[in-house]
Specification:
The complex is a heterotrimer of chains A (about 850), B (about 475) and C (about 220). Chain A has about 850 residues and is of the alpha/beta class. Chain A has 27 helices and 38 strands. In chain A, β8 (about 175-180) and β9 (about 185-190) form a beta hairpin. The radius of gyration of chain A is 28 Å and the shape is globular. The two termini of chain A are about 55 Å apart. Chain B is globular and about 75 Å long. Chain B is built from 17 helices and eight strands. Chain B has about 475 residues and is α/β, with parallel strands linked by helices. Chain C has helices at about 5-15, 25-35, 40-50, 55-65, 85-90, 90-105, 145-155, and strands at about 75-80, 115-120, 135, 140. Helix content of chain C is about 35%, strand content about 10%. Chain C is an alpha+beta fold. The longest helix of chain C has 12 residues, at about 5-15. The chains are: A alpha/beta (about 850), B alpha/beta (about 475), C alpha+beta (about 220). Chains in contact: A-B, A-C, B-C. The interface of A and C includes residues 175, 180 and 193 of A. Bound molecules: flavin mononucleotide, iron/sulfur cluster and FE2/S2 (inorganic) cluster (FES). Flavin mononucleotide binds next to β4 of chain B.
């Protein structure tokens, strides 16, 4: 249960003679901690079900029948309860437990990664016996064994607290590590040849109370006392998980999740946790670069040269022949500065932070918005449209999973195929690609009338799902497959908006994409959730000018480029070659632009192949700013280390270019940018420095749609069915061929292999062996991939990962078509 | 179906002229067949129950004060009353895991009279509205499993179990299932975990009884085999008749296994609260004395987990309250008798080793402490003990079970009895049970420990009995 | 290779149907696999995981908790000598000593011919008949060293009627004839009060009859 849902009455508990008001939903150990009394513990974790195994938290509890030793992690607070945590009896019991834990412990603190931040070590120093009475031989195990690609297990250090195993089972649902054997021989282990391949494995390392679990990227890198840390926000997806960034000697070494009740509860996906490695990798731009001539490689240069080239290209250019793609990776302040530069100074509205794989900005901003906690309300209903949060938004997946498994929320999926949450969904309705809008409309109709077949789903299934909708409804809205146009998802959103008591949680996945929308990096929008028309007056004092007519979105920008209508294209940390779902269009477009200016941290196919100027941007850990997550929650990202090489913060690059173009953006710090946004925005007025300081953990939620009105629902029928071909479903995986992952040593090997999955019925028809190579042919191209039968894929569709290392599905996709039909055939 | 080789009854049961509530069919060689059962009143108790309202059946069990025979001696009728009303389904779990050292009675009840047990299950299910029963038999008891399987198949075929039992609207399925070797699974919440397909690790209390939250989170009654075996007789003869046996506090009979240094060890059905340990050890009707010419040194009165008794306690009746006040428990009806040739340290080690091997590993004090105790005892026995070991053993014990541990009085030393039960830093009583043999023997026979302990200061580290791979 | 045979898949499915929740069948299925192969193999555990919607790690996590499951090959005959207190008092340890010498292996070991695995076990509930042992969970009570040797010789020379090979426990399986079961369903499908409990509220004579009037006769 989230804090907001808990019952509000309190009970009086007395600890060590002092009475206080406790929440009856809290376990005594947590209530005591809130009241300032820390009871030692090893197994207890407030985000997991109690097990009461370690017995470290024994205290004397008297609930009316005399004092007795009880584990405070198991005891509910009750009225009139008195508790003693410091009596001789308690001390003796706790000392006894500590001694028991230590008798078989190797006491190898000097060589242990956990040394210095180890609760076991701390307890021992604080209370432990000076000398061991245990003279027998200790238990021995093979020293650290890898249990996954990123995690090592040292069983000699393990104190069997059940935290990692509980996490794997209860929280992640990946029961791949388990207690094995019994009694004194109990150990944590994996099944032979089945590693702990979980997207969330890093959390076990974070919650291990000793040094038994260690993560490859951090092993032996530093001692805790050498680490400095700062609070920040994870940037690899749009959940905005709260983290601390820890560094030593100006190098980021580790990210840890923070328990923000509204957001990630301390959990992170491994991608959020480990892909910071890319920031120190070979692929990092540490200085600006330019391409001396057509066909040459990029060469390193100085800032004056690079900026000069960029400014030359932008000087006296027709604003209509300038466009911007990207910006979702940057922090809010940089986004604002770039919006101001491109829209207010250069004067183009051809600006799109999304790369054709998202949803229209007005839709996302115009729908009634839900928070993560809203979505996770006990008794509520979650309608998952399109996206697979397990692959795309790891920390959100864990929250949704908890809501369904532990808090009784009802999950109904409207997705193209079986996904990470299907196992716990009350109803899984798999729409034919391009028809999720029809399916959603039929579902809504079924809540108040009769159900009909829609989108390839039977009326019965739709009726059953409609019958299960109860309580407040949260639609988690994302794109199911990039091989279909956004239209049907848009239609689904409009249909579902007709439900009673409904709100929407955007599942747009890319980093700070919601910040980008808020900051006007979308055609027709200006910072502060406002339109060109409405924003013009708000911005009149702050901006030199505002574009007068709505510009192009990514697809239209690329089409214009292909038609030779662009002189300058700015890539704001974007890699359209891999991310835009139409490879041919991107390549033809990029090669037809006069000057491509890339502002980026990491070398991508787009920059290396097409950029004429590369402006080296500093990383999220190297500059300060804020992040806006999918709820519209703004949280800080603080600088921890100095920028790599001569790289510069994105906002500073924008300001620099503006100056050289003869226009002062009048911003000299992230704070000044925030102040300007607060002064011009219809919704950011409350986003003050004080509010941010107060919301250091939870962030500051920016509610409302501002000036954006929900556009009218699109008209039109679903695509026609071609009985001879299969419809392509191309979905994102957590580990793909993306730039950040390619440059993160710990994760790079995890990218999914290419394979095509079809329903067993369609597989039969192919007449090949499992894993045989087949050819997938679309109007655009073809691909050879091993084939697999999978009952989780509906008949009539072929499912592939969108991107794997070395291959991207956009080779097969025509972004202008509503769906992608393919033939799967023997090669 | 494989042809079943006829296997004679296991020995051990001693027939005598005492009252018989649960062993009346035992003397028959074919006591386990449906034919014999039907010929001797089998399922008449069920018929009698079905003629009453379910609540009346429950009332009779409550009125008769049928004490649980699994160890804790809690009245079944009261426990049944803990079921939260309306939270269906309810489950019945029959505890046939009998593994407590010295305990040998449920196995006989299952092997020799499975129909009586099935009938007891049905009566319980009828009384409480349970539609599904799991009969959990210890994994190592192949014959009991077979005989219950055959009995269930016959009972299903003849309409005693299943749908519309005896033509009524009463329907119950009984599933026979068995364990795979883990003593702790006898603990009721561990048993439920095991039935759910998990490691048999006890659940945390509260709730104190699985009656509130048990199998699959549903209200569940766990009863011992012998407890349920009493019900057919009770249904036929009524509570007042039941109470003519035994004492006011402990009506009826119970089965006890008396093993060790006796002339006629065996399993007996005795009257609770009437028969004394002296009767049992020396009576003609029972064990007929300590084995030839020897003397009683000590005995364990209620299974391996019970603190030990000595000759001073032989006149106590087998009844929970006086035995508890005297510092021990009747537990599972297992009495292990040792004469003066017995090495107290060796005997204590044997039981401590049992708890060390059988700890489920959940609680730190039990997982680590029992093994530590075992290794120190072993070291002492191997002649490598240190003078400080005795006090250290007592202190380790105190960290598993804090405070004075229940023990018998030792008048010669002016030590008074410390009443049962012990305190615990653990979830279940297994860890603390390992303390019983240690404190019992050190209190009484400290000199035996001292005699084994060398006066040397430096002690070699014991060879490592390491189980993990190296 | 040591997944369940087709016949055993059918048996496994019948076993699973006996429980309201699939995972409850883990231990019975581990027994079934041990019956098929003499010990529990990794492939068998994978197969069990498939059949019960669990992971192999869960299957092994459960299985390894229980002593009777052997994850490496063991002898055709498991000879389990009890040395717990009641047996110790009457020669259990001496019997074990004798067994070790006579079989030429230490407790825990398997004879070179793969015939016997000797184990030193805890109380097997035959305490009044000490010393005792089990061979593949079939009892031998009050056994002397001579009887022990004779038994081993018999087992070597073609076996004993009452002792099947390792892994086989009950040789009679519970079977519920079609239509005779009350119906085993998941807990969430059994929320109704059982019908007969209504009698607690009824004033009329109990024993209401389901199908006819041939009901309760006592
Ligand atoms: C460690 C431990 C082992 C136990 N073993 C058994 C057992 O083997 N058989 C049994 O019936 N009860 C055993 N019990 C007691 C059960 O937990 C439970 O109290 C009993 O089955 C309830 O049945 P009853 O009320 O009919 O006695 C054990 C308890 C503990 C703590
Ligand atoms: S006391 Fe021992 S057996 Fe009982 S739950 Fe704790 S560790 Fe397990
Ligand atoms: S923290 Fe309470 S038992 Fe471990």
């Amino acid at each position: 249960m989230t804090d907001t849902e808990k019952q509000l009455s309190t009970v009086t508990v007395t600890i060590n003679g002092e009475a206080f008001q406790a929440d009856p939903n809290d376990k005594l150990i947590d209530a005591a901690e809130k009241a300032g009394t820390y009871i030692p513990r090893f197994c207890h974790h407030s985000r997991m079900n109690p097990v009461g195994m370690c017995r470290m938290c024994l205290v004397e509890v008297d609930s009316g029948r005399g004092p007795g030793l009880q584990p405070s992690c198991m005891v509910d607070c009750s009225d009139g309860m008195t508790v003693e945590t410091e009596t001789d009896v308690v001390k003796k019991a706790q000392d006894g437990v500590l001694e028991f834990l230590l008798i078989n412990h190797p006491l190898d603190c000097p060589v242990c990664d956990k040394g210095g931040e180890c609760p076991l070590q701390d307890q021992t120093v604080a209370y432990g016996p000076a000398e061991s009475r245990f003279v027998e031989e200790k238990r021995h195990y093979e020293k650290p064994i890898p249990i996954s690609d990123t995690v090592y297990l040292d069983r000699e250090r393990c104190i069997l607290c059940d935290r990692c195993t509980r996490f794997a089972d209860e929280v992640a649902g990946d029961t791949l590590i388990h207690f094995m054997d019994r009694g004194n021989n109990t150990e944590v282990n994996t099944f032979p040849d089945e590693p702990f391949a979980s997207y969330f494995s890093g959390n076990t390392v974070q919650i291990c109370p000793v040094g038994a679990l260690t993560a490859k990227p951090y092993r032996f890198k530093a001692r805790p006392w050498d680490l400095e840390e700062t609070i920040s926000t994870a940037w690899t997806d749009s959940v905005g998980s709260r983290i601390t960034v820890q560094s030593s000697r100006n190098q980021v070494l580790r990210l840890l999740g923070i328990d923000a009740d509204a957001v990630n509860w301390g959990w992170l996906s491994d991608k959020e946790r480990f892909s910071f490695e890319a920031l120190n990798s070979e692929g990092r731009f540490i200085a600006p670069m330019v391409r001396p001539g057509e066909g040459d490689d990029l060469v390193t240069t100085g800032w004056a040269d690079a900026l000069g080239r960029a400014v030359d290209a932008l000087t006296d250019v027709d604003p209509n022949r300038v466009a911007v793609l990207g910006g979702a990776r940057m922090n809010n302040e940089a986004q604002y500065a770039w919006a101001k530069l491109m829209k207010g100074v250069v004067g183009t509205d051809h600006v799109d932070a999304q790369l054709g794989d998202g949803l229209p900005a007005e839709l996302v901003l115009g729908l009634p918005r839900a928070t993560i906690n809203d979505a996770c309300r006990p008794g509520g209903t979650i309608l998952l449209v399109g996206s697979d949060p397990k692959e795309e938004l790891g920390a959100l997946f864990l929250r949704l999973r908890h809501a369904v498994v532990e808090d009784g929320a009802t999950l109904i999926e409207l997705t193209p195929q079986r996904g990470g949450l299907s196992g716990i969904a009350a109803h899984s309705l798999h729409a034919r690609p391009g028809e999720v809008g029809d399916l959603a409309a039929a579902l809504v109709a079924a809540t108040s009338g009769t159900a009909v077949d829609a989108g390839g789903v039977s009326a019965d299934a739709i009726a059953a799902a409609a019958g299960a909708i109860s309580g407040p409804v949260t639609v988690v809205l994302g794109r199911g497959s990039v091989a279909e146009a956004a239209d049907s998802t848009v239609a689904a959103a409009h249909a579902l908006n007709g439900l009673a008591d409904v709100s929407f949680l955007s599942a747009l996945r890319r980093g700070n994409v919601h910040g980008a929308l808020d900051n006007g990096l979308a055609p027709g929008l200006l910072p502060g959730r406002t339109t060109l028309a409405a924003g013009a007056s708000r911005l009149a004092d702050a901006w030199p000018s505002v574009p007068s007519s709505q510009g192009n979105d990514a697809a239209a920008i690329l089409a214009a480029a292909r038609a030779g209508e662009l002189d300058v294209l700015v890539l704001l940390s974007s890699d359209p070659v891999n991310d835009f779902p139409d490879y041919d269009l991107v390549c033809e477009g990029l090669s037809n632009v006069g000057t491509v200016i890339a502002v980026d941290m990491l070398a991508s196919d787009s920059t290396m192949g097409f950029a004429d100027v590369v402006l080296a941007a500093s990383a999220p850990t190297e500059s300060s700013g804020t992040f806006t997550n999918l709820e519209g929650r703004v949280s800080v990202m603080e600088q921890k280390v100095t920028p790599a090489g001569t790289s510069r913060p994105d906002w500073m690059i924008a300001a620099e270019i503006a100056l050289r173009l003869g226009s002062d953006l009048r911003v000299d710090s992230p704070e000044s940018i925030r102040a300007e946004l607060a002064s011009v925005s219809a919704v950011h007025g409350e986003l003050t420095e004080e509010a941010l300081a107060e919301g250091r953990i939870e962030g500051v939620l920016i509610p409302g749609s501002g000036d954006i009105e929900l556009p009218a629902a699109p008209a039109g029928d679903g695509p026609a069915n071609d009985a001879y071909s299969l419809r392509l479903v191309a979905t994102r995986k957590m580990y793909d061929g993306g730039v950040a992952l390619r440059n993160s040593p710990a994760s790079s090997g995890l990218a999914a292999a290419i394979k095509v999955r079809v329903n067993p019925v369609d597989f039969e028809k192919l007449g090949v062996e499992a894993q045989a190579l087949v050819k997938i042919v679309s109007g655009r191209g073809e691909l050879l991939a091993p084939v697999e039968a999978d009952a989780g894929v509906p008949t009539g569709t072929a499912a592939i990962p969108y991107s794997v290392d070395g291959w991207v599905a956009n080779l097969l996709i025509d972004a202008a078509a509503p769906v992608t039909d393919v033939r799967v055939e023997r090669p | 179906m494989p042809t079943h080789t006829y296997v004679p009854h296991a020995p051990g049961y001693v027939d005598n002229d005492g009252p018989k509530i649960v062993t009346s069919r035992f003397p028959h060689e074919d006591s386990y067949t449906l034919e014999r059962s039907e010929a001797t009143g089998g399922y008449d108790g069920l018929r009698a129950a079905l003629a009453k309202k379910p609540s009346e059946v429950h009332d009779e069990v409550r009125e008769a004060t049928v004490l649980g025979r699994g160890g804790a001696g809690f009245p079944a009728g009261v426990k049944w009353g803990f079921m939260p009303p309306g939270k269906f389904p309810y489950y019945l779990v029959v505890n046939g895991d009998e593994s407590e050292p010295g305990t040998y009675k449920d196995r006989l009840l299952m092997e020799r009279d499975p129909h009586q047990l099935i009938e007891g299950c049905l009566i319980t299910c009828y009384a409480l509205g349970l539609a599904q029963c799991f009969l959990y038999v210890r994994g190592e008891m192949a014959l009991a499993q077979e005989r219950i399987a055959q009995a269930l198949n016959d009972a299903y075929a003849n309409g005693y179990v299943g749908k519309n039992i005896l033509g009524t609207d009463f329907s119950v399925d009984i599933t026979l299932t068995w364990g795979a070797g883990a003593y702790i699974v006898g603990e009721e919440t561990a048993l439920i975990e095991s039935l759910e397909g998990n490691r048999g690790m006890p659940r945390l209390k509260p709730p104190y009884f699985p009656a509130a939250i048990g199998l699959y989170g549903q209200p569940t009654i766990v009863n011992n085999v012998e407890t349920l075996a009493n019900l057919p007789w009770l249904m036929l003869n009524g509570p007042s008749q039941y109470k003519t046996y035994g004492s006011d506090d402990s009506p009826g009979t119970r089965m006890v296994a008396v093993s060790g240094h006796l002339n006629r060890p065996g399993v007996y059905e005795i009257e609770q609260g009437v028969t004394t340990f002296r009767d049992l050890f020396y009576g003609d009707n029972f064990c007929q004395g300590i084995r030839d010419g020897h003397e009683l040194k000590m005995f364990v009165p209620g299974g391996g987990s019970a603190p030990w008794f000595f000759p001073e306690q032989v006149d106590l009746p087998l009844e929970a309250r006086p035995v508890g006040a005297a510092g021990s428990m009747l537990g599972s009806g297992a009495i292990m008798v040792m004469d003066e040739t017995t090495d107290a340290v060796k005997a204590a080690l044997r039981l401590v080793r049992f708890y060390a091997r059988e700890s489920c590993g959940k609680c730190t004090p039990c997982r680590e402490g029992t093994t530590w105790e075992e290794r120190v005892l072993q070291r002492i026995l191997d002649g490598e003990g240190r003078p400080s070991d005795i006090d250290m053993l007592l202190d380790i014990a105190d960290n598993i079970s804090p405070g004075p541990y229940p023990n018998a009085a030792y008048p010669d030393e002016g030590l008074e009895a410390i009443p049962f039960p012990p305190k615990q830093t653990t979830i279940c009583p297994l860890g603390p049970s390992s303390v019983a043999p240690i404190t019992s023997t050190i209190r009484r026979f400290r000199h035996e420990y001292e005699a084994k302990i060398t006066k040397r200061d430096s002690i070699p580290v014991t060879a490592a009995p390491v189980e993990g791979e190296s | 290779m040591s997944r369940f045979s087709d016949a055993n898949v059918a048996t496994a499915e019948e076993i699973i149907s006996r429980y309201p929740v699939k995972k409850s069948a883990l231990i019975p299925l581990l027994h079934l696999s041990q019956e098929q192969n003499g010990h529990v193999t990794d492939d068998a555990m994978r197969h069990i995981a498939e059949l019960t919607d669990t992971t192999p790690a869960e299957v092994k996590g459960t299985g390894s908790f229980y002593e009777m499951f052997k994850f490496h090959p063991v002898g055709t005959y498991m000879v389990n000598v009890c040395t717990n207190l009641s047996c110790q008092l009457l020669g259990g340890e001496e019997l074990l000593d004798h067994a070790e010498k006579s079989l030429g292996v230490k407790a825990g070991g398997t004879t070179a011919d793969g015939m016997f695995t000797l184990e030193d076990v805890e109380c097997i509930a035959a305490c009044t008949e000490a010393p005792c042992l089990q061979v593949n969970y079939r009892y031998r009570h009050r056994i002397t060293t001579d009887e022990f040797d004779q038994m081993i010789a018999d087992l070597r020379n073609g076996g004993l009627d009452d002792i099947p090979s390792h892994g086989t426990l009950a040789q009679i399986r519970q079977t519920i004839p079609d239509g005779m079961g009350a119906g085993i369903v998941p807990p969430e499908q059994a929320r109704e009060e059982p019908v007969w409990l209504a009698r607690n509220r009824a004033d009329d004579v109990p024993g209401s009859v389901a199908g006819g009037d041939d009901g309760v006769g006592s």
